[in-house]
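Two proteins follow. First one:
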Amino acid sequence: MDRYNKITEKNPREIVLLKAFPCIWGKCSFCDYIDDNSNDEDEMNKLNEEVLKNITGELGVLEVINSGSCFEIPKGSLEIIKNIVAEKNIHTLWFESHWCYKNRLQEMKDFFGKNVKVKFKIGVETFDNEFRNGYLNKCAKFDSYEEVRKYFESPCLMVGIKGQTREMIKRDIEIVENYFERGTVNVFVNNTTDVKRDDELVKWYCDTYRYLDENPNIEVLYNNTDFGVGD
């Protein structure tokens, strides 16, 4: 599995995929990424240390992802990241977190100190409450994008799922385009779960929103590994 990459086009940064403890929720109906989680802290820290050795700091920005939230990354691995950020003069650090950790984000900012901007992505998937929590079983219970914006700089959307509608996608894209600093759109790819891709909806999305490929603030993943990490 690829766990390090350097992104040089949109939003240049280094990105690492680390191993971490199991996702606090782990029940999203569409997700099988949690298979990368572990309970062996020593093994995780050893692997993560090898991955983190690749970081050069040349772009000044580092994104750290794992199959869950940043609060599940072992403390030993976070200490290594903290040291590398200081040594390599990294000024901006991106993490991802589940909604349930929203009141702990400041803890992570405090851990890395005032000289580093710590920013957060969140897997919203959609701002349609019923589809997000009822079908996708996301357990992210907010009523509006304004609530999300209080805590997170960058929502991640998912498009092209059977049961999703064009109207949902239109609204989601409009929100991310107009009200957030950054955003990611994940085009759904079939995996081992029972949630299925809607190819007709994907085609409509690609025809309608191809212009987002040129938007400097929105990254579109047509495959799960488009950031150069994962399997």
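Second one, unrelated to the first:
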Amino acid sequence: MTKEQERARARRRHEEQQKTAKPPVSDSTRDKQVFGVILAVILVIAAVIVVPKLIGSSDTPAAASANPSATPTAGATPTSKGGLVAGQKLAAGCTAPPANQANPKQQSTVPPKAEAAGKTFVATVKTTCGTITMELDGTKAPQTVASFLNLAKTGYWAPSPCHRLTTEGIYVLQCGDPTGSGEGGPGYQFGIENAPADGKYPRGVLAMARMQDPNSNGGQFFITYKETQLPTEGGGYTIFGKVTKGLDIVDKIAAGGLVTAGQPTPVNPISILSVSVTEKKA
């Protein structure tokens, strides 16, 4: 083989090697590749940790207005386990609240509205701060009043704290969750009745708290201690009665303010001890 042939064969071998060889990686390129791998690992870990928090629980209710901290909404309200929490103190004439219920009585069927339709009832609510008397309107809100009768009869609220107070723009004391968490319910839900079209709730009104879903009324209710304007989006809030005696008790609790600014827990605690209901005869 001549030298010319050897050189030609060598060139062909070199060309074949060049076709399959990978280009060399510079130090800067290699550093970028390593950084990319590390970043990808961090993003995967972050997704595992953060995404569930962003999605949240399907049971967590949303507020019914642009101001969820003030709107009477059933759900997501921190409170005590019974007794006094830091910053709380008893108002004059009040006794210490009992422990909240761990496992409130549950039902699966909405009580029939016929039990209350066309009738008026008087509810006597004994609390740790005195007795509050209410008149329930079964003509305008038969389903709500039928539910109230049922929960009173079964002792659902005995005991339960008034776990939420609002003092800015919206003036309500919210009660009716035996767990005190703001997330408790009787096991059934129903829709809105007798909600004012203008969103105005006079002083002393008895109305239902609910979640964003208009069919989420249950066992939580609120009392307005000043005239209050509430949002009408979603259907508003059911008015089913009024306080006829003992509104001064609610005034006293409201005057005590909140444990911490922006938090819903009243400084002066109040709990329901028992509820009894009788039909009001004409």
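SUMMARY FIELD: Residues 25-57 form one domain. Confidence is low (pLDDT under 50) at residues 18-30, 37-69, 76-80.
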